């Protein structure tokens, strides 16, 4: 895996923007609330576009809108171009959230190279959930979110210590069948999401990994979206973007050190001109992966 060339990064940004514009228009049409999160929101505020070294765009949606999106996309979206992927009983893509993928492109990641799925350029769409007021309820929510994360992704988490890795291996070994793992993850999902945003004072993100599960954002920060200039378009960010971004990232308007201004590139293959299907057996679903 090598770094993107400037041309590849520019092309990937253009494709991501094209997808984001379609996604936002779809959400507007169907009265779904969405907004940039992470680098997209920071880019809108600091650069009026992409963070120069950023290579993707992510969205937040309140849980109710997120679930409505799943139902509406398959009926109303241009699924010949864009497929919505979300792990279910039939397949697991090792993400904790849904992705929108462009079928006409190729972006193969190492952690998915053994999977027979759509390996197109992706938008990540992450749900927001209520953060319960009770400390005990909150502890239970995080515990269920960790169980959900393990059985939904069905992989041992990296970079979270040996103890978590060992515990994860044991937990997966205790539930070897796909059917049992699915039942556990759906039960855990039900338990962690049973605190409606409307009844809570704060919001959290449960599908972004253990680090972000600890975050607590004011509910009002996500009541609506405000539109900001982004690469010549008007794109949504949370109305309380400052409260959200300061909690999540600290001093987000200050540029990071020069050595950190690089794309977090982890792709095995990028091809913006051809569908991932031409690479089956060569870059994904290879014999050694079986």
UniProtKB/TrEMBL annotation:
* MF (Gene Ontology): transferase activity
Instruction: List the InterPro entries.
Output: LicD/FKTN/FKRP_NTP_transf, LPS_cholinephosphotransferase
Q: Which UniProt keywords apply?
A: Transferase
Q: Name one Pfam family in it.
A: LicD
Cite the LicD/FKTN/FKRP nucleotidyltransferase domain residue spans from the record: 27-250
Q: Name one GO biological process term.
A: glycoprotein metabolic process
- Per its UniProt entry, which superkingdom is the organism in? Bacteria
Q: What name goes with this protein?
A: Phosphorylcholine transferase LicD
What is the protein's species of origin? Answer: Candidatus Onthocola gallistercoris
């Amino acid at each position: 895996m090598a770094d993107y060339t400037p041309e590849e990064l520019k092309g990937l940004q253009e494709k991501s923007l094209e997808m984001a514009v379609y996604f936002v228009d779809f959400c507007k049409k169907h009265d779904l609330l969405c907004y940039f999160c992470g680098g997209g929101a920071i880019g809108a505020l600091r650069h009026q576009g992409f963070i120069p070294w950023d290579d993707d765009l992510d969205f937040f949606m309140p849980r109710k809108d997120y679930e409505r999106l799943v139902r509406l996309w398959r009926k109303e979206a241009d699924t010949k171009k864009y497929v919505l992927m979300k792990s279910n009983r039939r397949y697991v893509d090792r993400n904790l959230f849904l992705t929108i993928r462009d079928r006409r492109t190729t972006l193969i990641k190492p952690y998915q190279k053994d999977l027979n799925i759509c390996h197109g350029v992706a938008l990540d769409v992450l749900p927001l959930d209520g953060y319960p007021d009770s400390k005990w309820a909150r502890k239970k929510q995080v515990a269920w979110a960790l169980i959900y994360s393990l059985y939904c992704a069905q992989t041992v988490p990296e970079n979270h210590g040996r103890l978590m890795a060992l515990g994860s291996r044991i937990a997966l070994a205790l539930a070897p069948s796909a059917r049992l793992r699915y039942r556990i993850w759906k039960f855990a999902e039900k338990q962690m999401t049973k605190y409606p945003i409307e009844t809570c004072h704060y919001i959290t993100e449960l599908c972004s990994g253990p680090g972000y599960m600890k975050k607590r954002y004011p509910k009002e920060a996500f009541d609506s979206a405000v539109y900001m200039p982004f690469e010549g378009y008007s794109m949504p960010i949370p109305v309380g973007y400052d409260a959200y971004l300061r909690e999540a990232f600290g001093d987000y308007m200050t540029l990071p050190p020069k050595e950190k201004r690089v794309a977090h590139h982890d792709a095995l293959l990028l091809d913006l001109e051809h569908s991932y299907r031409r690479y089956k057996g060569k870059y994904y679903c290879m014999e050694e992966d079986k």
